[in-house]
Specification:
275 residues, alpha/beta, 33% helix, single chain, Rossmann fold, 10 helices
Length: 275
């Protein structure tokens, strides 16, 4: 049996503030193989904090603790900051939600991807062009020399994916990678991710609000509420979810053939936050 890419046990992210402790992630546990894992939930449910905790990107006053946090057999809890930085970008990468805020506006596209590769010379330029081709960008030579403001939102997102995938990581965390894109470009980006996961054997954590998208694209789904996982199930069985919170999320989605005059509001039970 293949070794899991990532093992998390009782991950917690707490922010100590003057008014008390904010529990952003509460006792999260899961094991990730070379698969597509979707994480869904409302804003503030802890989805993005989970991704940032894995990458050691939680800023003060945030505190990350866990009983176990292992990446490819390496204990992330005992690893020093320098070693964690070496993993970040090389072995674990993250695509942020809006490329316009993630790309450096005063650096050319090719230079930014080359920087992710931590190298220079003709060999690096070739790898950058190959990375742009891998995300289906036409005329990569031209795009190499463009600035971020000269590309569309869809191309900017593909450039970000190229930058994160250029070092050939084992794990990609994609935080709402298609939310700002139109449907056609969204499907192109998903096809790229799907192809890369299949060909490279990469693990993918796909963070999204879009339940239908996650159900059709991912293998497994974690549903988060208030920093906790309230339900885990096979993605294709998402419509058969049993937890009332997941059912509420599904019921609040509009449908083309919907006969309801008003969409139902989510019911939230304080008991869902109890440890």
């Amino acid at each position: 049996m293949d070794q899991p890419l990532l093992e998390l046990d009782n991950l917690r992210v707490d922010f100590h503030t003057p008014t008390g402790i904010v529990h952003a992630v509460r006792g999260l546990s899961f094991t990730l193989g070379r698969e597509r894992l979707g994480i869904v939930g409302e804003s503030g449910s802890g989805k993005s904090m989970t991704g940032r905790a894995i990458l050691d990107l939680i800023p003060p006053p945030g505190l990350v603790t866990a009983d176990r946090m292992v990446f490819r057999g390496q204990d992330l809890l005992t690893m020093d900051k320098r070693e964690r930085r070496k993993l970040r970008g090389r072995r674990i990468s993250m695509v942020m939600q809006d490329p316009k805020y993630s790309l450096n506006p005063v650096m050319r596209v090719g230079e930014q991807i080359a920087e992710a590769l931590r190298g220079k010379g003709p060999g690096v330029r070739r790898r950058v062009l190959e990375a742009l081709e891998a995300v289906r960008i036409r005329d990569p030579e031209r795009v190499y020399n463009l600035y971020p403001h000269e590309v569309s939102g869809g191309m900017g997102q593909r450039i970000m994916i190229a930058m994160m995938l250029a070092p050939e990581p084992d794990l990609l965390i994609a935080d709402e990678p298609t939310s700002a894109l139109d449907v056609t470009v969204q499907m192109q980006v998903l096809a790229i991710l799907d192809d890369l996961v299949a060909k490279r054997g990469m693990g993918l954590i796909f963070i999204s609000h879009d339940l239908d998208l996650v159900a059709s694209f991912c293998d497994r789904v974690l549903v988060m509420y208030g920093g906790r996982v309230v339900e885990e199930l096979n993605a294709r069985n998402l419509r058969a979810a049993t937890h009332p919170y997941t059912q509420g999320l599904l019921d609040s989605l509009p449908r083309i053939d919907d006969q309801r005059e008003e969409l139902p509001t989510l019911r939230r039970d304080p008991a869902w936050l109890e440890d």
